[in-house]
Amino acid sequence: MTSSHITRQAAGCCLLAAIGLTGCAGPKPLYEWNGYQPQVYAHLKGQGKGPEEQILAMEEGVQKAAAKGAKLPPGYHAHLGLLYLNTGRTNQAVAALNQEKAQFPESTKYIDFLLNNMKKNGS
């Protein structure tokens, strides 16, 4: 074999590899954020939407994630639960907090703390 033949083979292999790699999709994101981070940031700065508007936006995010079969990030359900609590929707708050705990068992102590405080405060 000549060196030009080997060079053409190597170039052909590189071309095939490049074509194969461009056809691959990038890695799938771990979580479906749906604008959660900017919303929480605005809320914490006191510049966010009212609780009802936040709830609607977050519930829409839950539906979008479910439609994609994607997971929501840590804290999403907990934040939604606290919004429910602030608007007097105790049953929905408990359900959202328990969902956070089920999805992220490492949050159990914090979520149990919140749930116990709800009971103490008669919510």
Helix content: 55-70%
Q: β content, as a range?
A: under 5%
Inertia-based shape: elongated
Task: Return the average pLDDT rounded to an integer.
Answer: 85
Topology, number of strands: 0
CATH class: Mainly Alpha
Number of domains: 1
First and last CA, distance: 83 Å
What is the CATH fold-level name?
Serine Threonine Protein Phosphatase 5, Tetratricopeptide repeat
Which segments are poorly predicted (pLDDT under 50) over 5 or more consecutive residues? none
Q: Please identify the structural class as seen in this structure.
A: mainly alpha
Rounded to the nearest angstrom, the radius of gyration is: 24 Å
**In DSSP terms, counting alpha (H) and pi (I) runs of 4 or more, how many helices?**
6
SSE arrangement, N to C: HHHHHH
Pfam family, one: DUF4810
Protein name: DUF4810 domain-containing protein
Organism: Aquabacterium commune
Task: List the main descriptive attributes of the protein structure presented here.
elongated, 69% helix, mainly alpha, 123 residues, Serine Threonine Protein Phosphatase 5, Tetratricopeptide repeat, 6 helices
Brief summary of the model shown:
With 123 residues, this protein is mainly alpha-helical. It has one domain: Alpha Horseshoe (Serine Threonine Protein Phosphatase 5, Tetratricopeptide repeat), CATH 1.25.40.
Word description of this protein:
The chain is mostly helical. The protein contains six helices and no strands. The chain has a single domain (29-120), classed as Serine Threonine Protein Phosphatase 5, Tetratricopeptide repeat. The radius of gyration is 24 Å and the shape is elongated. The relative contact order is 0.09. The mean pLDDT is 85. This is DUF4810 domain-containing protein.
